[in-house]
Amino acid sequence: MKIKSLKLKVFILxxxxxxxxxxxxxxxxxxxxxxxxxxxxxxxxxxxxxLYKLKKLSSDDLSFKPLVxxxxxxxxxxxCMPIPVPTAGTCSHPTGTGISGTLLGPAxxxxxxxxxxxxxxxxxxxxGLSTWGADIVSMGVMGSFAGFLTFRVLRSxxxxxxxxxxxAGLLADWATYATTSVExxxxxxxxxxxxxxxxxxxxxxxPTQLPLGILEGAMTAGMVTLLxxxxxxxxxxxxxxxxxxxx
Amino acid sequence: xKVQICGTIILSIFLLLTFNSQLSTASNKWQGVDQTVVxxxxxxxxxxxxxxxxxxxxxxxxxxxxxxxGTAGGFIAGYYWKELIGNKRQKVKDKEYGxx
Lengths: 247, 100
Hints:
The structure holds 2 protein chains of 2 kinds. By secondary structure, chain A is mainly alpha-helical.
């Protein structure tokens, strides 16, 4: 009981000491129109797939609804939460798509990421409307698929659930920022060569995203393990676990 | 129990160190990677960020909007978490009292 109260106090303290928020998705106007349109065109089918999957799941069974609601809130909060990285002296944010991709599958994870990104672009000066498609592709598509696939592959070779969750979160974060580097390099390079600029951007992200990826891995491992202990039935229903793996 | 206490202490030290140094350093410290990486490199290549459609990045307005968004998001997350875990407890209760 005392531990819970102490954790709560630490959490509240951290809320009150928060500083100015900084946008960390690709901001409005950074990408040229043709590149912004291309990323939109890539993102649209994935979002449509997410809508279709959500509709299909809703018609079959509504018991997963609280999990979708929880994940939407988690992705929204985590992806606009600036976390200071003392080793780099900068702030950045985890993505949350490692957790949602693992627990809900990539389709619904992409959809909820698109919703979270839209709200952030509209009201939080976080990302942009013209760069919404690019942000969906990097955070939603790549993050969700990286998290989902990493978890499934590791579980298929009998890796521990916490370790699989950790790796899913870690790689979802790194995949997101690697894709952001591709989007930025291709959009802003002009006549310059792609590879040197891409490498430069990727290297610039490393001091911040390397530790944040580890943090995201820990968060994902914690969430997956917690749900495994509390609601293994739901994880079986969402095909995260096989029935025989549930406690 | 010991692990939990150690975890809480480490978390507290991390948060205090992080935020203390944040409070005492110059304003250009702890910038987001949007400014230190994305916007900086974009500017070098002739691309600059535009103002957002609804510009909440004015004075403390952005802090207020973030606070509002965090509060709403926190309540929604808490509500659905209760739904997820509460249902399980209800099921156990129902089983114990023979309602199922």
